[in-house]
Amino acid sequence: MTEEQVQHWFDMFGSLGYIAGFLLPFIEAFIPILPIIVFVIVNVNAFGWFNGTLLAWSGTVAGSYIVFLFFRRLTHTKYMKKIQERRSVQRLIHYIDRRGVIPIFILMCFPFTPSALVNIVASLSHIKAHAYLIVLIASKFIMIGLVGWLGNDITTLFTSPTRLIMIIAIIAIVWFAGRTLEKHFMHSSEE
C-alpha cells in the first residue's frame, strides 16, 4: 500500500480518518496482538508527523490508562488473585513496589513490550494512578515519537538503502533491548 493509497483512504473518510487514527492505537491497548507500529506508521504517513504522532500517542495513552484503571478495580477478584499468584507477576510487582515507576517507564518506551501485560501488572502494584498516568504519557511519547520518526516517510525506505539499513538496525537494537528487559522483569526460572 503506497502513501497515496493510505492518504486517499483517510481523505475518503474525512474527519472519520482522524477518529480511526485515534481508535486503532486505543484498541491496541485492549488487544495486544494488534500492530501498534503499523498504526503509528499509517497515522504519520496519512496525517503528517506531528498530527499522526499525536493521534497515535493520545489513543495508546488513553487505552492503556483505561486498561490500568479497569484491572485496578478488579484487583480483589478471583481471576486477578490467580494472576497475582504467578511467580513472574509477584516478582515484577515486588520490583515495581521497591523501585518505583522507572522500570515501567523503561519497559513502556520499547514498542515490542507487551503493554497490556505491563498495564495489568502495574494495576496490581501499589503505584498511584496519577503516577502511572505520568509514566504512560512520557514513555508512550518516546515510543510513538521514535516509531513515527522512523516511519515518517515510508517511500524513502525503498529509495534510500542507507535509511532502510539504519531503521532496521535501530529496530533490532530496540527489540533486543526490550526483550532483554522483558526477560529480566517478566520471566522466572521457577515457572
From TrEMBL:
It is found in: Cell membrane. GO terms for cellular component: plasma membrane. The chain crosses the membrane at residues 12-42, 54-71, 101-124, 130-152, 164-181. It comes from the Bacteria. Pfam families: VTT_dom. Belongs to the TVP38/TMEM64 family. Residues 35-150 form the VTT domain. Keywords: Cell membrane, Membrane, Transmembrane, Transmembrane helix. It is a multi-pass membrane protein. The lineage of its organism: Bacteria, Bacillati, Bacillota, Bacilli, Bacillales. This is TVP38/TMEM64 family membrane protein. Its main location: membrane. InterPro entries: TMEM64, VTT_dom. The keyword Aminoacyl-tRNA synthetase does not apply. It comes from Staphylococcus edaphicus.
